[in-house]
Amino acid sequence: MPQKEKCVTNSFHLVFRAKLRLASRVFSLTVLGSGSSGNSALIATDNCRILVDIGFSSRQICQRLQAVDVNPEIIDAVLLTHEHGDHVCGLEVFCRKYQIPIYCNSGTAEALRNNWLTDYPHWHFFGTGSAFILKDIEVRSFYVPHDAIDPVSFTFLSNEGSIGFITDLGYAPKLALERIRDVHTLVIETNHNEKLLQDSQRPWSVKQRILSRHGHLSNEAAARSVAAIGGDQLRRVILGHLSRDCNRPDVALEAMYSIGRTGIDFYCAEQDKVSPVFAIKPCLLMKEQVEPVCENGHCHQYSQSSFEFLGWNFV
Ligand SMILES: [Zn+2]
Ligand SMILES: [Zn+2]
User: If you measure from the C-alpha of residue 213 to the centroid of ligand 2, how many angstroms do you get, rounded to a whole number?
Assistant: First the structure.
């Protein structure tokens, strides 16, 4: 069956086809790498490219961007969650080289500017809990408990959908869960398996720090958080920030599968590997389980007006 016929199988879709023809923009997430030794992700539309953290060397970041055909010179902003080395180690060299604006709260900036980047002219500050617009992406920040000066997590919203990004937190407070409740794609920390951590050779003080309310989220705690948000919108969960010696992808994924949620794709990000480019496609959210509208082999995404028609208040 030709793809066009195969995809247009529901009269519900036909109502929207005229509108959908107008909406073919891309909204995507690529995890450039994630783990206890380095974290960075790319959030992109056709018009805007944002890096969340730069926890790899500038050279590594460039190579990983190159792997997904993105020129470092066109990065619009680097957003920082907090000042720990596994989130900022390539920041200075990368930003100085390409003169990229850095967005963070003042506490994180102070922690960084004490040592370097004191004279950097492209700092932009936001208050924790505030929202701001970068071209066609709305960024919302919110507090998470972690042993940094003023750690934050983010949600990213565009006309095509929303992404939640929540790593480096000792536990998931109610406010954080509310902020990620309606996202389509969620990146969440699954730092460790509690038994593997307890059995590891790490000093007692380090174990206590990781397990504390300002440490890191375990597989089990992350799975409980995913189960708790439980909205119809969530379609993809990307596990990140895995400890190299206190966790394994199969163990982390198993914890997620154990919550028994159907209709969600789970993917485990890796430290040394760039993830696939995950497209945020609200058309996959349709409760009718219809396929995306396609034309000439290209699947369209839903526009803001489509969401409004559906009565979804996602911005
Ligand atoms: Zn941290
Ligand atoms: Zn970290």
Answer: 15
In whole angstroms, what is the distance from residue 276 CA to residue 310 CA? Answer: 29
d(CA 108, CA 91): 13
DSSP state of 234: -
Give the closest ligand to the alpha carbon of residue 209: 1
The bridge status of strand 152-158 relative to strand 27-33 is unpaired
DSSP code at position 291: P
Domains of the chain: 3-8+26-309 (3.60.15.10)
pTM over 0.85: no
What pLDDT, in 10s, does the model give residues 1-40?
A: 333 333 333 333 343 333 433 444 789 999 999 999 999 9
Q: Which residues pair with residue 189 across a beta bridge?
A: 240
CA distance 7 to 93: 47
Q: Distance from the CA of 77 to the center of ligand 1, in angstroms?
A: 20
Query: One-letter amino acid identity for 49?
Result: R
DSSP string, 251-276: HHHHHHHTT---S-EEEE--SSSPPP
